[in-house]
């Protein structure tokens, strides 16, 4: 039986803290509702102690969500937790606090000892409990450069103090799937269920999805992800890739989420508009040409049977296939267009049309099939079928 994976969306916190991604409280509220509608389990509203804007966003989001938990980010500081609770109360509120998890960070960022780091966790978790918070997550920052002794001390102390979830952050994106899987497996052994173990991976080497998957296979219960993979530096685990992968590979992996993958592109489009993010050309799932091709051999296969080159189906993600005419296109797609406008030509005329409309195009020039079809129809004085919706 497949195991259900919890999805914790951090678009509005880790995603927003990247340069250029700032949103005002009303924009964050709108995005929180869109993200909740996807079927995520938790929406991280922000870091209330960091600014009045995040405080207000948390206040708004805490009142608006009806299905997902809302979460907040805090340091292992009582006042941070207190402000988070002031902003959103304790009902349906997951208070997430970050523990210093490596000697590198202890020495150069915090200037404290290992014991002090553990004591901070115990004190802050206990304080959150005293305020009535039921969902308490402790994120071990820089876990990928920690060691067993420190990670175990933080994990076991946090759980004993009342934490309900341990998050393993590959903060600098430096780990590999085998390494990250080992970390998750160890922490899973120190924090048996019902304590939740969560992944938090960054994409500095393009491995955030692979690392998150390795973590799930090693026993993690939850993935932290963002729409489009936005986030600090190179970004975070992309929600659409994680949800899409598990939707396609549920039988193979024995894992699934409740994410409605058909709604994700609409939410991502809204996010791009808010943060003024250009659409990438070839990003998995969300790229302009993620479901497009201009290559002749591929086009011939797709025209005969889309499954030849489309394992990932665009319609499942609310997208459409796009076949484009470029200098790499072949005669098959040209014949296809001529058939659509009801024109038959001999081989000599086909070769001439191929030269004019395909072979002599400038290097990067490409056009949608419909545009080329209309041009051919005008040139050949044929009627173009009117498509529904045009």
From TrEMBL:
Its EC number is 2.3.3.13. Gene3D superfamilies: 1.10.238.260, Aldolase class I (3.20.20.70). Pathway: Amino-acid biosynthesis; L-leucine biosynthesis; L-leucine from 3-methyl-2-oxobutanoate: step 1/4. Residues 1-25 are annotated as: Disordered. GO terms for biological process: L-leucine biosynthetic process. GO terms for molecular function: 2-isopropylmalate synthase activity. InterPro entries: 2-IPM_HCS-like, AIPM/Hcit_synth_CS, Aldolase_TIM, LeuA/HCS_post-cat, PYR_CT. Pfam families: HCS_D2 (PF22617), HMGL-like (PF00682). The keyword Transferase applies. Residues 5-265 form the Pyruvate carboxyltransferase domain. Keywords: Amino-acid biosynthesis, Branched-chain amino acid biosynthesis, Leucine biosynthesis, Manganese, Pyruvate, Transferase. Coiled coil: none annotated. The keyword Manganese applies. Belongs to the alpha-IPM synthase/homocitrate synthase family. LeuA type 1 subfamily. PANTHER family: 2-ISOPROPYLMALATE SYNTHASE 1, CHLOROPLASTIC-RELATED, HOMOCITRATE SYNTHASE-RELATED. This is 2-isopropylmalate synthase.
